[in-house]
């Protein structure tokens, strides 16, 4: 549980409050019957036209509650909110080295859309995958046609 609490502190309170004020429908907390926080997801809607999408900002599950399908349930929640908002797709960024998360997202139907070089604070060893899943509004699945070349963080819309 201590590690979970440390993860929570990655973002400052003002960051959470900004998201909560602007996109409250994109917040979901999973709580155990005893009141313990098992995990949460937060996101937002952004973009214009065919780039209108839901974005997963943070998905965290306490180590005590991993491998129970909780992350998949939270992702489904965010996808359903995005569907209601008529989004074309949902996207997220994940460290290239996070093989467990990448595999889980792939099992949920996400594809690697592109690689974002040095995404994590300009660290040359910390690239990210921009992963996407098309929603029903994207009938032709144009939003998930992978790019053939990596991009830099400043090129990400």
Automatic annotation (TrEMBL):
InterPro entries per the UniProt record, alphabetical: Acyl_CoA_acyltransferase, GNAT_dom, NatB_acetyltransferase_subunit
Listed EC numbers: 2.3.1.254
GO cellular component entries: NatB complex
Catalytic reaction(s) noted: N-terminal L-methionyl-L-aspartyl-[protein] + acetyl-CoA = N-terminal N(alpha)-acetyl-L-methionyl-L-aspartyl-[protein] + CoA + H(+); N-terminal L-methionyl-L-glutaminyl-[protein] + acetyl-CoA = N-terminal N(alpha)-acetyl-L-methionyl-L-glutaminyl-[protein] + CoA + H(+); N-terminal L-methionyl-L-glutamyl-[protein] + acetyl-CoA = N-terminal N(alpha)-acetyl-L-methionyl-L-glutamyl-[protein] + CoA + H(+); N-terminal L-methionyl-L-asparaginyl-[protein] + acetyl-CoA = N-terminal N(alpha)-acetyl-L-methionyl-L-asparaginyl-[protein] + CoA + H(+)
Family matches, as Pfam families: Acetyltransf_1
Ranges for domain N-acetyltransferase: 1-136
Keywords: Acyltransferase, Transferase
A GO molecular-function annotation: protein N-terminal-methionine acetyltransferase activity
Keyword Acyltransferase: yes
Family membership: Belongs to the acetyltransferase family. ARD1 subfamily.
Stated role: Catalytic subunit of the NatB complex which catalyzes acetylation of the N-terminal methionine residues of peptides beginning with Met-Asp, Met-Glu, Met-Asn and Met-Gln. Proteins with cell cycle functions are overrepresented in the pool of NatB substrates. Required for maintaining the structure and function of actomyosin fibers and for proper cellular migration.
Record text on subunit structure and interactions: Component of the N-terminal acetyltransferase B (NatB) complex which is composed of NAA20 and NAA25.
Listed name of the protein: N-alpha-acetyltransferase 20
